[in-house]
Design brief:
single chain; two-stranded antiparallel ribbon; 2 helices; alpha+beta
């Protein structure tokens, strides 16, 4: 499988207390989008956003 994304570094990948696991919180992703990612028919997740906490700190200064 040659998917070019990493959920671990995505800001949409959060822990859900209800499911007690990490899930994708991207608002627009549906089952079709997810199945295309898993099947490898797309090269990268259209909802991937790099989780960089330093950018948040810069905005607070």
């Amino acid at each position: 499988m040659s998917i070019q994304y990493s959920c671990d570094t995505c800001s949409n990948y959060r822990y859900d207390d209800d499911y007690e696991e990490y899930v994708c919180m991207a608002g627009g992703m549906d089952e079709d989008d997810f199945s295309r990612l898993v099947q490898g028919t797309v090269k990268s997740c259209p909802y991937y956003r790099f989780d960089n906490e330093y950018d948040i700190v810069k905005k607070q200064m």
